[in-house]
Amino acid sequence: MRIPAHSVCTAVRDDIVAGVYERGSRLTEELLARRYGVSRVPVREALRTLEAEGFVVTRRHAGACVAEPTEQEAADLLEMRMLLEPLGAARAAQRRTEAHLKVLRGLVRLGQERARRGNSDDLRSLGGWFHETLAQSSGSHALTSMLTQLRHKISWMYAVEAPTDPVESWAEHGAIVDAVARGDGERARAVTSLHTERSTAAHRLRFSGGSERADRVRTSQPPVNMTGLRN
Fold first, then answer.
1. What does the pLDDT look like over 67-117, one tens digit per residue?
2. For residues 8 and 31, is the Cβ–Cβ distance under 8 A?
């Protein structure tokens, strides 16, 4: 399948995240150009971008290779996410538009309905769209870009178990939107912090044989009172 040159970076990143290219494997310009139906020039630019993002490394005598992150690097990503997602929610409470709120509320309605029915097939993708929209609502291109990169890299390094109580998880999504809609930045930050910490416990490293538990990553923030937050 031929892919426009400007999409090469996205295509290679998606394939790395999906495991098409194994960690440590070589990424030759010739191979990638043939696979995506483009010249070597956009491939070279894509590899530079992916190296800056941490997906690719350049090795002497080998050239571009898929990165091989350590367990500590993977744990750091989850900790960064726990710091940045609450910040994004707090900013969204001050900067969101009505269009953002409409999309967020629609996603919450869909998520809550499917969680109640026990239809979990697409809850993960709905959750991804929710957090992407929440980040965009922050009005900060830099913050949105950082959170997007974090999501890509976390998806690459971790397998995520379904929440034990998806109804509760989507109640938390609804509480975040309520706080954002009211313009209550501190409440949005607190509820998002709790939600992110809970979801972090469900992440399992893909490259450690399942022996490492991501729930050893913790923050020092106190529990948040969730009373009355369910929609």
1. 999 999 999 999 999 999 999 999 999 999 999 999 999 999 999 999 998
2. no
pLDDT of res. 22: 94
Q: How far is CA 205 from CA 15, 16, 181, in A?
A: 18, 16, 35
DSSP assignment of 40-70, as one string?
Answer: HHHHHHHHHHHHHHTSEEEETTTEEEE----
Nearest to 129 by CA among 110, 113, 114: 110
- Residue with the two structure tokens 């913050």: 143
Reading the block at residue 18, the tokens are: 């999906």
Separation of CA 81 from chain center: 8
Q: Is the predicted pLDDT of residue 133 greater than 90, yes or no?
A: yes
pTM, two decimal places: 0.81
d(Cα 183, Cα 186) in Å, to the nearest integer?
A: 9
Judged by DSSP in three states, 88 sits in helix
Q: What is the CB neighbour count within 10 angstroms for residue 92? A: 32
Q: For 140, which DSSP code?
A: -
Secondary structure of residue 66 in the 3-state scheme: strand
